[in-house]
Design goal:
With 434 residues, this protein is an all-beta fold. 2% of the residues lie in helices and 34% in strands. It has one helix at 223-229; strands at residues 2-3, 8-10, 12-13, 18-20, 27-29, 49-57, 86-89, 95-99, 114-123, 135-145, 174-179, 185-189, 194-198, 204-207, 240-245, 251-256, 270-277, 283-290, 297-303, 308-314, 325-331, 357-363, 380-385, 394-400, 410-417. The radius of gyration is 20 Å and the shape is globular.
Length: 434
């Protein structure tokens, strides 16, 4: 069900403060120069990644769902919140689709799950050395409710589960979203964890085959109770947080937020990345993607090509206390398939198991961005490539989950990336017409 009244529009916000480059004589406003070596890039390459805009939408803004009721916690049911949990490019103009997560109050209210459609326009000069922050305009153009095959609304309340933890339940926590070649949606659900396919109109059309090793046997509404009832499967509220689709649309990749219970849960660092065949829906392999620290979380996965990715790894701290908010590179080439490994160790992997390779890309707390400080948000959760900029640089959209907090606006950070910094980049293919 989709509603499309007059759109909500928000203009850009300039990055916090002017930032000066370490290069003599070069002044930058809201821009960042970052030295790193990427997988596949030549040694000594100086990457140039620029923050070109920061935009926000008011925390109290309404979406286009048409809902008029108020949830038990006092939140208007049409609140435009948490859409930064996941974002994907649609292949059409400057249009993106974003998924709100399970709603306010940490899964204690029956928030009707939905996706939001936005036009995000970046007005940037062709000159890559431009020394000004550029305008970013966000326009909400549609809200689409997510329903099952019977037309029943999926809800974020944690008690709406099926007793066997099957997809027959109505509880849903969308944390990853990607668009297929024909405009349909793939959504990663943190609760199951499941990978689901929806029509463009928001109706579920398929449940992909996630191996049983990821699933808990005894679901519960209470997080602590659910952990106590299970000794295998995903940690409560730590299921699939990242979802990527290969540029040709043939593969999906779902990444856990933290390790499975049998992989030492919150004490461990070895998360599983599940590869799925998009056509058959079947699992093809599992790869270890280690966290830098057991206290960290993975929060998104974005395909650069069929084996290289960008991912979000972050801590759970906010404002000036935040110390780890990074976009990293992940390369699965040469990594071992651990689909038949029942349990992974807490830390160092045994000889013979090769994890995905990780590398630095963007440290969002680097002073050169001008983003760090008392207002920096906790949850950086969405990544999407947009259409290339007129000068050929790649456009990277980074979104924030504001948790429906009344004092926390929904923010979007926009970066421009020189093609030399992602030498293996392949744009996602979409079928036409759509």
């Amino acid at each position: 069900m989709r509603t499309e009244p007059s759109p909500l529009v928000a203009k850009h916000v300039r990055p916090a403060q002017p930032v000066r480059s370490s290069r003599p004589g070069l002044a930058l406003v809201g821009l960042c120069y970052l030295a790193l070596i990427l997988p596949g890039a030549g040694a000594g390459v100086e990457a140039e990644v620029k923050l070109v805009g920061v935009a926000s939408l008011p925390a109290m803004a309404a979406d286009l769902s048409g809902l008029t009721d108020t949830l038990p916690d006092g939140t208007p049911h049409n609140r435009l919140g948490s859409f930064g949990s996941a974002i994907a490019y649609t292949g059409r103009g400057h249009r993106y689709i974003a998924a709100a997560d399970r709603g306010p109050a940490n899964g204690e209210v029956a928030y009707k799950c939905r996706v939001q459609m936005f036009d995000i326009d970046v007005n940037i000069d062709a000159d890559p050395k431009a020394d000004v922050a550029h305008a970013v305009t966000i326009k909400l153009v549609a809200t689409t409710m997510l329903v099952n095959e019977k037309g029943e609304n999926f809800v974020g309340i944690s008690s709406a589960f099926d007793a066997s933890n099957s997809p027959a339940g109505l509880r849903l926590d969308p944390e990853g979203i990607r668009v297929n070649r024909t405009g349909g949606l793939f959504i990663a659900d943190e609760y199951g964890p499941f990978v689901l396919e929806f029509s463009p109109e928001g109706k579920r059309t398929r449940v992909l085959s996630v191996p049983a090793i990821f699933s808990i046997k005894k679901p519960a509404a209470d997080k602590k109770e659910e952990i106590a009832l299970n000794d295998s499967g995903r940690m409560a509220n730590k299921g699939f947080e990242g979802l990527a689709i290969s540029p040709d649309g043939s593969k999906l990749f779902a990444l856990l937020q933290q390790p499975l219970l049998q992989d030492h849960g919150t004490a461990g660092v070895n998360c599983r990345l599940l590869e799925l065949d998009a056509k058959s829906g079947g699992a093809t392999r599992q790869i270890v993607c280690p966290l830098d620290d057991a206290a960290n979380n993975f929060n998104e996965l974005l395909a650069v090509n069929d084996h290289e990715f960008l991912a979000i790894e972050r801590d759970s701290k906010i404002g000036a206390k935040a110390s780890f908010k990074r976009i990293i590179t992940v390369d699965t080439a040469g990594a071992s398939d651990v689909g038949k490994v029942a349990s992974l160790p807490e830390g160092k992997l045994p000889e013979g198991i090769v994890a995905a390779k990780k590398g630095p890309f963007i440290d969002l707390l680097d002073p050169r961005h001008g983003l760090a400080g008392p207002t920096f948000p906790e949850k950086i959760e969405g990544l999407a490539f947009g259409p290339d900029l007129p000068d050929g640089r790649h456009l990277l959209i980074v979104t924030v989950d504001n948790d429906f907090l009344a004092a926390q606006p929904s923010r979007i950070y926009v970066f421009a990336i020189d093609p030399a910094d992602l030498p293996g980049f392949q744009p996602q293919a979409f079928d036409a017409p759509r």
